[in-house]
Fold this protein.
Amino acid sequence: MNTIGLDIGTSSVKALLVSSSGEVLKVCSPEYPFQTPKPLWAETDPNVWWEATQKAVRMLLDGMDPGTIGGIGLTGQMHGLVTLDQKGEVLRSCIMWNDQRSFAECQEMTSIVGKEEILRITGNPVLAGFTAPKILWLQKNEPDIFVKIDKIILPKDFIRYKLTGEFFTDVSDASGMSLLNVGERTWSNQIIDQLGWKKEWFAVVTESTEVTSKISSIGAEATGLVAGTPVVAGGGDCAAQAVGSSIVEEGKVSVTLGTSGVVFAQSDEYRVEPEGKLHSFCHAVPGKWHLMGVMLSAAGSFQWFKNQFAKLEDKIEKEGGANAYDQLCDQAASIKPGSEGCLFLPYLSGERTPHPDPHARGAFIGLSLRHGMGHMARSVLEGVSFGLNDSLSLMRQLGVNPSNIILTGGGTRSNLWKQMLSDIFNSPCTLVNAQEGAAYGAAVLAAVGIKVKNSVEELSMEWIGETERISPGADVEIYEKMYSHYIKLYPSLKDHFQSMSDLG
């Protein structure tokens, strides 16, 4: 039987049709906007996701028998606050993962529950992106909406509700709400009671491979799916992407080079970084956890550099020459490792891991008259790689010792960058054949849920294979020396970043 993976993303729904052997048969991805009605705000009407989902599924099913679909797996953007009334109608636009309005509520919630207790129970400090402080913001600022709340669900689980009429979530997605006892994989009655909220608001929480519900007659009419088709719990997008990249065993680590950067490690036990510098969440692999470091500007830093400084390279590309990014990488490759003492701090959007500081800023350090475009391009790639190594170093301190690191994301198109990462991590790095990210992971979870295989680990071994391996080279030592300088820069500049933030 085929499975469908649905990824309810920030700007599109990605729908994947996957065969029983793991082959991607078809991909559809209708797009939609999100709104920023005020500075630091980010919102979307959940009904827009539902409209796009209907379109995506109907496009997948065009020309095929819907009876061949054995199950649906769900994933999507984490942390979003979707509120429903007693009739199941949306009360207001979803406050999304990238909304930063609830900074004061984070402090308030931490004060109510206690910093140490929050970290012990949830594995993370309370962050503005998480769901609970958004609920607190709603309670304080929109009381007329707050009093009408009957259900609070996450973005992918709104789609589950529209497909099935049922309210379920999974442990990996729920981990990002600041309301789950992550070690025990259940809602924290302690936190919910201390905040004065109702347990009935929250969906039933399950492991990610469990069949939670089935397509209803209403869901079938809307999408073209067969009523009764199983819907599997699924997972948050980071956990689902990890499943889709074969990060399903202790010791496996992935690094995703997208606009942001994510370092993800499976853990067979619940581990918490003592200062909360790493995220500790339940994994989508049943009974397992994961550690995660998030860099806000990874490949996004290189994109910024290209957009701001590579005017000549852009001109050459527009005139039919080489891609501007490839030109920059060629220039960077001509420069010796270490960029002749030029270091780049990649904090263009502030930072999350290991420095949760919205005031942190990017910087070139060590510039001289000798430095040109090639030096600066290379230093950007090196600086981002050092920043990712910050997360990996914290994981290693907690006993995570990867045998190799799987690389995913657009940045993996650069041979220079892949080799640089292997050298800086001092670890073999590999690429795998599964390149569809979280949606593919959702399809894997669906396949396990309907018993194509008995476990995520078994199915991953069969469906996902290595396509390329990069081994550390001769530059490991020079990068160790450069990294020793890099890690001293943020502590030295932190106070300056804070005092300069008022300047714009």
